[in-house]
């Protein structure tokens, strides 16, 4: 009995990975095939990108601020308070900017995609779309993936910038540090591999958020309860995958660039 | 003779590539879900211009059968042909083209809730980039057929259940498809609204002479369809004289995943089969 349960669970797991891979592959292929739903990409970019701007700015600003606040006292013990700007910029650009922005967008948009597509699934709107001659993967999934990948890239840059400014605000106005010194150490210590690491991550994270959100939405079964389940699973799985992929990408890029 | 057709590539409508092929043909079709056989060895045919009513208790697999006819579900075994094309073996991209000749009315209407009635009914035309003026005109014509011309700018949530079902019919007929699949079009509606919907289906059948496959578990609706006709002079639906039955309308009955009956209205009501007698009682 137990073996049968394990067997069935393993089959379900493998089938889920297969379905997810197929959906992602079809969405990517559809990017290069007609009809091209440009207007849908713009709409989604507005919803995902512009819509997420306030939470991304707030998160970035206060993360940078608290980073400066916490690190300055520790650095002061070693007489290194002057490099607060360097620490804030490194942390924001390489790690916290991409990861926190992605987690915020995941919470807001992976759930949104799963619930929206899930509701369409349980009310047969997806079937109706197919019956009316439109490929839902092309019309609904592809624009969401494209928009999320592009917009998360820019949201991360904004988050990095706002985080460094937040750190500067705390360092200058609360800790009495010199503004010129803060920005000088920030700028001087950064190298291209650091920027690259910070900009590669949101591309992967954007793909994870959108494909996981769409996958759970498109595989929703079981009415409104199923929609709720899909929404929760989409946020949990995409968040865990973001943190896991962050480790993998960091290790890979550190291996290549040595920093 | 049914052809395992090639891809629908020409500009000829999918329904006209093989003009002699039946509208729908099921050959020994079976499907199971989670290890449970839902439909077993189903074979039947819907000829051109024929209207077949699929009866059966709730949960017997009627909607599954209808979705398979539109290629929305694939059977585990057997073959399904629509206008000569084997939909059970066609890739999705080719099915999209064939579906231009098929209209489908879903059980719960399945209208896009974020679009207005105009955009729902004209959805296919919008996707084909038909000019706005032409879309408005054709949407108005389709809505006039279901007597809901005044709802163009409303959202589905603002309509009653019966109105939503009528909008779904308008959406299915706007491109004048050669085959219409109705999935429980009167399910969950009150008797008066159900009669309005059945009248529309009779009107569609008698005005446009399209083939159709209609799923229902409501016997009164099924027999209304078989015994009434649309009077084009008066614009009313009248009973056929001398208790006649509509010759283009016949029945299929599903029972425990198998086809329990395939024949005319007369044969159905005079059947000696114990299940059918009990079902019709």
Helical residue percent of chain A? Answer: over 70%
Output the structural class of chain B.
alpha/beta
Shape of chain B: globular
Report the sheet-strand fraction of chain A.
Answer: under 5%
Number of strands of chain A: 0
Per DSSP, the total helix count of chain A is 8
Helix run count of chain B: 11
Mean pLDDT of chain A: 93
Name the average pLDDT of chain B.
Answer: 89
Instruction: Give me the strand/helix succession of chain B.
Output: HEEEHEEHEHHHHEHEHEEEEHH
The radius of gyration computed from the alpha-carbon positions of chain A, rounded to a whole number of angstroms, is 21 Å
Shape designation of chain A: elongated
Biggest interface and which pair forms it? A-B, 14 and 23 residues
Strand percentage of chain B, roughly? 25-35%
How many DSSP E strands of chain B?
12
Quick synopsis:
The complex is a heterodimer of chains A (259) and B (281). Chain A is mainly alpha-helical and 259 residues long.
Characterise this structure.
- The complex is a heterodimer of chains A (259) and B (281).
- Chain A is an all-alpha fold.
- Chain A has one domain.
- Chain A contains eight helices and no strands.
- Chain A is elongated.
- Chain A starts with a helix and ends with a helix.
- The model of chain A has no long low-confidence stretch (mean pLDDT 93).
- Chain B has 281 residues and is α/β, with parallel strands linked by helices.
- Chain B has one domain: P-loop containing nucleotide triphosphate hydrolases (Rossmann fold).
- Chain B has helices spanning 14-17, 62-69, 92-98, 117-121, 123-127, 132-145, 161-173, 191-208, 219-227, 265-269, 274-280; strands at residues 24-33, 36-46, 51-55, 77-82, 85-86, 102-105, 179-183, 211-216, 228-231, 236-239, 249-255, 258-264.
- In chain B, the strands form three sheets. In chain B, strands 6-7-8-3-11-12 form a six-stranded mixed sheet, sandwiched between helices. In chain B, strands 2-1-4-5 form a four-stranded antiparallel sheet, with helices on one face. In chain B, strands 9-10 form a two-stranded antiparallel ribbon.
- The longest helix of chain B is centred in the C-terminal third of the chain and has 18 residues, at 191-208.
- Chain B is globular.
- The A-B interface holds A 35, 120, 123-125, 127-135 and B 67, 70, 72, 92-93, 95-97, 99-100, 102, 104, 106-108, 110-113, 123-124, 127, 171.
